[in-house]
Amino acid sequence: MDTTITDDIWHCLNRYGNTVQETRDHAAERSSFGRYRAGAPYFEQYPLRRVLASVQEDAVFTGALAEYKRITCEFQAVERAGGRKYREELFHDLFAYTEAYRTLLCYHELGMHGAEGIADLRIRDEIGVLLLELRKDFSLAEIEQEVTLLDDTIKNIREAERTVQPVQELPQGSTGMSDPRWQQYPSSPKKQEQAGFR
User: Fold this and answer.
1) 3-state DSSP call for residue 152?
2) pLDDT in tens, 48-94
C-alpha cells in the first residue's frame, strides 16, 4: 500500500474537519471570497467522498472512513442549524462564483490576466460542486446554461491559444506584456469567434 495515498486522505480529512468547524464557528464572518466561506466544507467533501468510495473495500482505510462519517455527521448538524438561510447563502455564493468565472474569461480576452492565464480554474470546480449540491433546492437552469456557455468559451480559448505563436519581442510602442499590443489575437474573424472574442 502506498503510504502517500493514506497520508493524502488523512490530510484531506483534516481539511474537511477544519472547514466544518470554521463554517460553524465563524458563521457571521462568512463571505463568498473571504477566509470563511459557506461552501468550503462541500469543496472538501465532494472530492474526498469520491476517493473514499473507491477504497471503501480496503481495510487499511477503515479508520479514514469512520472519521469521514464522524465529520459528516458534524457537518449535517451545521446544515440543519443553518436551515434555509444557509442554503440561500450557498446559492448567493454560486451566483458570485459564476460572475467571477465570467469576469476571469473577460479579463483573459482583454489581455488583463496574470502570467498563469486561465490555467488554474479552481473556481470552476467550486461552481460544479454547488450546482450538484443546490440542484434539489433551487432552479438552476439559467446558471447551468451560462456555465455551459462559459465552459465552451474557455475550451475555444484554449484551442486558439494552441494555434497562436507567442510574440518573441515587444511590439514597437508597447509598454510590457500586459499592453494590449503585446497580445497575439487571431487575425481572422472566424478564429476570433472560435476563441470567444466578441
Assistant:
1) helix
2) 999 999 888 888 889 999 999 999 999 999 999 999 999 999 999 99
Give residues with Cβ within 8 angstroms of 32, minimum separation 6: 92, 93, 96, 97
Name the helix (H) or strand (E) containing 127: helix 122-134
Q: For residue 132, which of 105, 96, 94, 161 has the smallest C-alpha distance?
A: 94
Angle (CA) 91-127-138 rounded to 5° is 35
Would you say 147 and 123 are in contact if contact means Cβ atoms under 8 Å apart?
Answer: no
Percent of the chain with pLDDT over 90: 58
- Domain boundaries along the sequence of the chain: 3-164+178-194
> What are the distances in angstroms from CA 193 to CA 8, 75, 190?
42, 45, 5
